[in-house]
Request: fold
Amino acid sequence: MKILYVPLEFSKWQSAQYWSYPEGLGLEEGFKACGVECFTLPALIRQPFFSTESWLDHARRICANIRFDSVWLTIPHIEYDSNFLEWLTEIAPTRIGYFVESIGPYLGDRPIRNGRKVQSIFPYLTHALVWDEMDVAYFNARDIPALWCPVHVPERFVNSRRKTPCFPVALFFGAMYGERIRYLKHPTLSGLLVRPPHSLEHETQNPQIFDALNDEMLCLLAARSRWNPKLNFQRIKRWLRQFMRQPFKARNEIPKNLPLQLETCAGQNEQSLLIAYLERLRECRHKNFELWLDTLVQGLAIVNLPQGGFGYSPRVVEAMAVGRPVLAHRIPNRPRTVGLFKSDREIFLYDCPEELAGQIRRLQQNSALCDHMVNQSQAKLVQFHTTEKRVGQILRWLATGEQPAYEN
Reply:
């Protein structure tokens, strides 16, 4: 089986740090374990000012004369050109939308920004993998078979970092908005819940190396196909749109103190450039993910505060993998999501700051309870929620329609 995988990626670590490795390039580990040949074509968003294109603009040349059994297309953050979507229908009979957020805000009469662009992708899809369990019914009603696909983590990271916590408090990592602000400022949680300023990769040069790699790649990519009228027209159109938004934004420069990472690829074709870029991107992502996991083990437990979407965030399974109890806000009207892990045995669920504070105190006073929860949750991960298991479950569903079991 040969798959074209289009993962979401960012050009700057300031944004990329919030995109989980298992949900992006980590999916390659699942493909490899299942014996699938995966051709990865990253879709970068929020590119620097001087380069308004990405690998997708060069996809036809990179994948010339290649046919795929299926395409896995990350949605909703990537803006896909209609010509690219039409091309996908020519090279693969199966086109799977990999939805990494709840789609509710993108639907209706007044969808959020880019909502109609997201909906315009639906006619090109033959299947959907959805993060929010309630989105299955939406796609099934539109004759697009859908499978609920909750979060996962590669098996090699499970039970990889059982260390004594540096701080006897629970930690929260994530953006500050809405209910999260109220929780972090709530007096009941004072001294019990802390939001660290950053994760450990920011104490290294890795973020700068990540940024420099993408700046260098985009410079090389923008120099390709100078005589292609269609591509040049797209470049001018996007440049004008970007200029109208930020007319005086300075051109990004590759840092002088970092060595060039793609210098030997300057005269090579797009496919060779892509192979070299992916090798270095994977290396950087792997290092940063390792440091992120080292950050998680510093606290007594990891808290998942209320969020905009309706599903567990990747930090839930990542914290379980490295041996930390998880305390998660009970997601309303999502019974299957809540049932992924057994409350008070594999996870603590809470509905208010006072309940969360009581659970953190229980863990502080009972190390045996911490160990029991970690052992139970890690056993559940290995049984149901590794990336290798998830990809295998999806492939069986695509081939036979078999619905996977995510819990006992």
Summary: The chain has a mean pLDDT of 90.
